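Q: Joint fold for the lines below.
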Amino acid sequence: MNITIDYFLILSAFMLGAGMYGFFTRRNTLAILISIELILNAADINFAAFNRLCQTGIEGYVFTLFSIAISAAETAIAIAVMINIYRMLKNNYVDELDTLKW
Amino acid sequence: MNSESIVFIVLAVLIALFSVLSVTTKRIIRAATYLLFVLFGTAGLYFLMGYTFLGAVQIMVYAGGIVVLYIFAIMLTGKTGDAKQHSLSLAKKGAALVAALVGAGLLMFVIISHQFVSKSLSAEVTNEAAAPIGEIGSSLLSAGEGGNLLPFEAVSVLLLACIIGGLIIARKR
Amino acid sequence: MNFLSLFVLIPLLMLLGLWLAKGVKAVRGVMVVGSSLLLVLAVYLTVDFIAQRAGGNTAEMLYQASFTWFEPLNISYRVGVDGISVSMLLLSAVIVFTGTFVSWKLSPNLKDYFLWFTLLSMGVFGFFISIDMFMMFMFYEIALIPMYLLIGVWGTGHKEYSAMKLTLMLMGGSAFLMLGIFGIFYDAGGNTMNILDIANHTGGASPIEFGRQCIWFPLTFVGFGVLGALFPFHTWSPDGHASAPTAVSMLHAGVLMKLGGYGCFRIAIFLLPEAANELNWIFLILTGISVVYGAMSACVQTDLKYINAYSSVSHCGLVLFGILMLTTTSTTGAVLQMLSHGLMTALFFALIGMIYGRTHTRDVTLMKGLMQIMPFLGVCFVLAGLANLGLPGLSGFVAEMSIFVGSFQNADTFHRVLTIMSTCSIVVAAVYILRMVGRMLYGVCTDEHHLHLTDATWEERLAVICLIVCIAGIGCFPSWISNLISDSVAPIIESVKQVGPIVSSCNPFM
Amino acid sequence: MTYTLFIILLPLISFLVLGIAGKWFSHKTAGWIGTLALAGVTALSYYAAYEYFFVIGRGADGAFAPLEVMNFCWLPFFDQGLHFDMGIMLDPISVMMLIVISTVSFMVHIYSFGYMKGEKGFQRYFAFLSLFTMSMLGLVVATNIFQMYLFWELVGVSSYLLIGFYYTSPAAIAASKKAFIVTRFADLFFLIGILIYGFYTGSFAFVFDTPEHIANYAQAGFILPLALTLMFIGGAGKSAMFPLHIWLPDAMEGPTPVSALIHAATMVVAGVFQVARLFPLWVTYAQDWMPIIVWVGVFTAFYAAAVACAQTDIKRVLAFSTISQIAFMMVALGVCTEMQTGHEHVGSVGYMASMFHLFTHAMFKACLFLGAGCIIHAVHSNEMNAMGGLRKYMPLTHITFLISCLAISGIPFFSGFSSKDEIITACMAYSPAVGYIMTGIAAMTAFYMFRLYYGIFWGTENKELHAAHHPHETKVMTWPLIILSLITVGVGIYTTLAGFGMFEGYSFGSFISADGQDYRIHFDTSVALTSTIVAIVAIGVATWIFKGERQPIADKLYATFPRLHRWAHKRFYMDEVWQFVTHRIIFACVSKPIAWFDRHVVDGFFNFLAWGTHATSNGIKTLQSGRVQQYALVYLIGTIVLILMLLIF
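A: Joint structure:
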């Protein structure tokens, strides 16, 4: 059994699916963020795998690095926001964040 | 069936399993923990591809940094768990599940039906020092052909902004 | 620097001055200086225009100036005036001048009020001096928007509702209008926005195909007609006027509604002559309805402002009616009617505002015997009423007679019947005016709150007398202004008449 | 003769001065300004008449030619060469009208000094009088139909203002409103007539004999008579012809001198004057339509006379008598069948008779009204039962009133005799039926006038009231009465003698006739005798019934025909009919539904649009739930669908 790029892609597609499911069903914002991390990781795997198995350069590699950096930044900000929201609303549920709605 | 394949399968099963657990568990602290396992698995995949530095970064930044951040955040926001999760109607959940499955399925179908030209995972791939750190470093800081200075700087500015933004947002008034 | 641009520049400077002004006195000072300057300028323009015409200058538009503004769409800042716009500018200047004095003691936020007021007048002046379709449209929009705030903030009664209704309906109209303008622009070759070029097929403009004209004509006519209180689109007017503060009602009924009539003539009729010939019957019916219907509705109203608003519907209907009759006399009469209606409605609204400011009611059934208590306002009110019902010697008579005589020159039954129908409005006008005057001013005052009301103050007297002098001036010596207007109307009507024998082939009544 | 311009300018100036600055003048000053202006106008008018008739005199063809003193374009119209001119045209009838108007107006001004003494708004009153005089003079000297219309409207407005002079009285307000609206309604037809006339003849001017005009008239066909008839409706409104007469009795709510000036002598004859002015057209082109004038006139004359017999308010009696007398003038115009005025040519006598009656009627009716004013001033009431036996208290008023009553009844040697006689002669020539009817109406006139006379000066004396008010006369008010009655008697004697062939060439007909030629008045003996006898009989009957202290016959008559009396007293319910038409039909069935339609249907449609927009956006706003997860789900589904489409197609 030769592990070609397809296997990686299928794995990442599965992760993406799981992430999406989580994103749709979770109500806690932190949990949603966790789902997003799953999706991002799936993308990262694709970057690395494509770069390793289909290419010779290092672009995918570098962009995986960037992606990790960006997701770190995003997480930091998102968590700051959520803590702030929590301070105001005493909970973290997306469907109750409707102060600015309509 | 070489050893790399076996390792890949183990890792893949691990990742898949914990991904699912991470999005289905009711307690959020567990979800964070399962995410940690997924991240480790991903790092394993990088090692398997010979991207040792990347794997190390993955473990340091993700497992070491982000997940810790999550756990702190979870603890700070007090009420753990997603207690009201069940109040989400079954229909909505089903719709989400179907959509996710169909989406992922469609993606897989596309992937399978497309003939990728690729190497296969082998010892040679695993052991070859595919991307030397020096090369990566000079690529990040060079502005010429194949250089990534601009995105690098952009990311650094972004990180700076995040630091400031995080401080401002999280500051007590 | 073209001197017409002063009409836009002075309001701009006034805006600046108002912004810098501290205190009520400074604000009033800026307004008085600015509006007097505008008035002087308008009078000077009129005199100079007449002198130039007398000196043999027969150009279609005088004092033209142009400066390219946006190359890709050929939009220019292009100004010029003919007799019609000169008279409209004069009217606007008079109304702005008197409006300043009428709002002398308005509160709160006199400064902000005057800021919007000045912006509105800038739009109006800009509209009348532009000869570029796009500029015209832009100034039109500038004039509309402040209305919303002026009514919404300083109004009375259901002001939010009225302001919203007025703005939305007029905006709806301007949506049609914009379609029409761009339609005309592209169908005329897309090379120029200049009205004169499009009309004369010069400057790269090609004649617009008949079939296309028939699309753009209703759009532009309805677009402007909404503002001119065309029959089914007039309902913003009673509510809007009832809620608006006095000077805004004046400016709105006095000048802004004239934008409608002026625009209908300048764009719909002038640029689309074949369609005007072909389709005017539809709009003639609508305006004919307006004329009678407005007057009839006014008969049973009890709110002073509603009475006047419906009477405006009737009179503005007559404006559009005169324009659509497409004879020189009737169109001249229509422009005269715009002037006359502008002045007398402004006078009416000013007086209603003053009376309302004292009695705090506009319901005619609640007032009685005011003539004894405020003789000056009472007499002026009667005069305004008489002007409204077309008393000779006041401006309304001149305008109405021109319209009727002109309309009657169309020698077919359809036009005849409509003309005779619209003449009936002068009787109905007498009914509602006398009814209102009789109830409100005559008799013995029985309401003890009204017994101690004061008569007009000096600034109110100034505004009212100024308007009455203008009304009587036009009414007693109409020929100069009539000649001034017809001078510019005649060539346009000639060219419309010339375009061919397609006279309402689709009119089922002919 | 440019000075004739001042005939119009003087009262205009007086109006402006009094109207604008009046409140700073004392009553006396204001009165003097108005009166002096009028004195000037009167002098100028008489001089103009002298100059027109005697200095300029007859043209080569022996006729008085119209003289256009000035004419300028006031408002240009730009189609068909039409223009709205203003100017002064003198011809026999306008000169006569100048004299009538200025004389009566001058008398009324003097009289008003006494009558209006101490009234609040004295200055305003004189300002309005000046305005009225100006407009009326402008009307009669008009050079074209449109100028006439303009001043026509102005007299309407001054009448409105003067009727409503006592603006605190509800009856006066209602009356002024009614007068204005009814006449305005009639003016609408006048205006339409003018429009038609202007279009088909290409001119508004009172010049009918140029070749192009004649060509245009010939082309117009039935349109020209139609236009003339429409204009006649306008005239009928102003001159209070049935059924547009309803405003005139109510107009008596105004001050009495105003009734004398406007509603008896001058403004109400504007309709007659208008028909006379357009008479060449009527006779030449609308001969077939003239019975309209005749029969409207005959019916109005009869109707008004019948109503006058049952009124108790003395001013209303006079008002109905005015209506009836104006109808006489209308009939006289209507029965005139040609312009040529050969010697004893009866076909054209009506025109002259009408103008003659207009002249004499103005004098004696003004005198009657002013006399009535004195009486009302003295007893503070309009009702006949408040009077009775006043001859002892007010001798001068009594005499002048009697003279005027005799004049209106058509007794020889009083002015009404000659003119009424000419009218009846003309009617006889037209159709004996009309002649006899008119004779009968003349008898009714004599009857109700003497009923009035006896009711006021004889009959039952209301002693308590008289004791309370001490009826007396004021000098300034009696002078005009004396002058007017002297005119009545003087003109009466002069014209009666002229009728028997004296003063050849200087009788009324010499100056005013249909074609301007010298027309010799000669009595038709049979007509003159008949009408005199009939008048005397009617007066005798009135004396028999009403002279005594008690009036058993009258009471018996009322008891015998209660319904007839009530109907006549209520003016045959014409006002109620109009009230019904305007309020129940026009207001309730047209205006109210239109207002409702506007508020609910038209406005409702736009409110519905607004509501619809609001409802729609409310409906679709749930799509924008603000839930990121939902958006993502929709996004995903969209992506899936797109990909599927890509794959399938």
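Q: Anything notable?
A: The mean pLDDT of chain C is 86. Strands of chain C lie at 62-70, 75-81.
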